[in-house]
Design the sequence.
């Protein structure tokens, strides 16, 4: 019931974004259509849907519009990590280089043999963990809005004042059982961020700093907050993020990103029956059969995310990003480092 | 025939007068980018001749761009615009050159330039750098030096 409503909403969101971008493209809003921004200065498609780098939202407004009009685009991102595959599809529209609306939907496939063991037991015992013995999948929808407050990231080369924007994201994880199995408190929550972006022309470099107020576990893919035997908490905190992009030419950039993460689920055992039943009972049972199962099902310390990227925009309608992600420990999996590819089509 | 000749000479006289009088009124100052402009910038552009060649390419690309060519065409006397721009660009790059044109604010006050049109000129500037084999990094020093004029050029 809940799941089908979620997927309906997702379908509607996809349809709305495609419809809106198609409408802009076909000229329904041609009076307001604008693509006058300089190359890559609108940023690309982040996993949150907002305009920015790969994971870090920037203060720039998405799309190629200037203050004179509207522009937007759709993006698709695929990350292939040893035990995880992330698919993100979404879109964003920028209004007058001032305001931005965005949407992204995530599918994170978990190929974790230790979690699959739990899933097999779940299937046999009928515990309702939200796991699947073949491929447990986490899903999330992200709705975002961003408002540029002041400053010009590009042209104020005689001032240290950056472009500054505030943004909000509402994240709705639609795989509640699995998120609770992993020990999170909430499946839906909001985040807020403040971003400052500046282009330093003499260095051919863009620098962005973002502070995010959030309680997310792995950007919300494994929920928000944590639950333990003492109860549940969902305390937001400020986390720091940064992007540095060096332009090799007007349409090619290389760079580095950093995103601080929290530690809500650090050291927690994958728990059964929505957090009410920690895994100890099961591991006691399984212990003699499968030595080491308890440590294998204890979640690692959540790592901060880092990546190095290469971005190329052959023209204003298309950009590609290839990155190497260093996401470290994700849930019960270690060393989740691997390749990332993202495409962003703008209209 | 005679009338048009008189008209032309009157126009030329007025233009010369304007050109000679403008610096006394306003002129333009060198901008002050926060990270400075390297001393070698002008040489990296190929000196006065290099800057002149770049400005000629700039106008070539401007005149090919339907979004902005009409503005420059209506303004007239492209040769003079190229000469003045060559002076301006040398000055902002640190050259000991007197810019004899009007201030950026005076020259653009009545044109109602949009950000889209300004960005189109910036795109033409990058195209001109590529055409003249000026490295991207060198080109960005000129962009940094000209960028602060955005405030007075873009009035809409």
Sequence:
């Amino acid at each position: 019931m809940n799941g089908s409503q979620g997927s309906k909403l997702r379908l509607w969101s996809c349809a709305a974004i495609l419809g809106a971008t198609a409408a802009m493209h076909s000229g329904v809003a041609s009076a307001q259509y604008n693509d006058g921004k300089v190359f890559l200065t609108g940023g690309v498609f982040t996993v949150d849907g907002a305009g920015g780098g790969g994971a870090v939202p920037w203060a720039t407004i998405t799309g190629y519009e200037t203050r004179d009009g509207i522009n937007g685009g759709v993006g698709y991102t695929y990350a292939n990590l040893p035990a995880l595959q992330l698919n993100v599809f979404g879109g964003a529209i920028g209004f007058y280089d001032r305001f931005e609306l965005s949407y992204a939907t995530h599918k994170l496939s978990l190929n974790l043999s230790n979690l699959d063991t739990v899933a097999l037991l779940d299937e046999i015992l009928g515990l309702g963990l939200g796991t699947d013995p073949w491929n447990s999948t986490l899903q999330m929808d992200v709705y975002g809005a961003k408002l540029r407050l002041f400053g010009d990231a590009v042209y104020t080369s005689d001032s240290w004042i950056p472009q500054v924007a505030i943004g909000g994201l509402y994240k709705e994880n639609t795989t509640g059982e699995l998120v609770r199995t992993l020990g999170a408190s909430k499946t839906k929550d909001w985040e807020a961020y403040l971003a400052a972006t500046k282009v330093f022309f003499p260095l051919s470099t863009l620098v962005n700093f973002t502070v995010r107020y959030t309680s997310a576990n792995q950007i919300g893919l494994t929920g928000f907050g944590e639950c333990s035997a003492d109860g549940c908490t969902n305390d937001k905190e400020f986390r720091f993020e940064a992007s540095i992009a060096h332009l090799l030419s007007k349409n090619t950039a290389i760079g580095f990103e950093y995103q601080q993460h929290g530690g809500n689920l650090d050291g927690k055992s994958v728990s059964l029956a929505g957090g009410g039943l920690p895994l100890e009972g099961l591991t006691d049972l399984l212990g003699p059969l499968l030595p080491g199962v308890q440590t294998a099902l204890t979640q690692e310390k959540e790592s901060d995310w880092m990546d190095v990227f290469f971005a190329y925009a052959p023209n204003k309608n298309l950009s590609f990003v290839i990155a190497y992600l260093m996401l470290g420990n994700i849930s019960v999996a270690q060393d989740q480092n691997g390749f990332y590819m993202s495409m962003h089509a703008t209209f | 025939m005679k009338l048009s000749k008189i008209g032309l000479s009157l126009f030329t006289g007025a233009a010369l007068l304007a050109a000679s009088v403008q610096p006394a009124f306003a002129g333009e100052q060198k901008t002050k980018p926060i990270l400075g402009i390297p001393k070698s910038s002008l040489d990296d552009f190929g000196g006065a001749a290099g800057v002149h060649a770049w400005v000629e390419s700039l106008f070539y690309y401007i005149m090919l761009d339907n979004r902005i060519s009409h503005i420059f065409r209506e303004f007239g006397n492209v040769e003079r615009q190229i000469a003045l721009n060559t002076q301006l660009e040398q000055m902002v790059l640190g050259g000991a050159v007197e810019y004899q044109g009007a201030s950026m604010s005076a020259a653009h006050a009545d044109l109602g330039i949009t950000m889209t049109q300004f960005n189109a000129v910036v795109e033409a500037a990058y195209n001109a750098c590529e055409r003249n084999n000026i490295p991207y990094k060198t080109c960005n020093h000129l962009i940094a030096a000209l960028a602060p004029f955005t405030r007075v050029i873009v009035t809409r």
Remarks:
- The CA atoms of residues 126 and 234 of chain A lie 29 Å apart.
- The interface with chain B takes residues 34, 36-39, 66-69, 97, 152, 154-160, 200-204, 247-250 of chain A (CB under 8 Å).
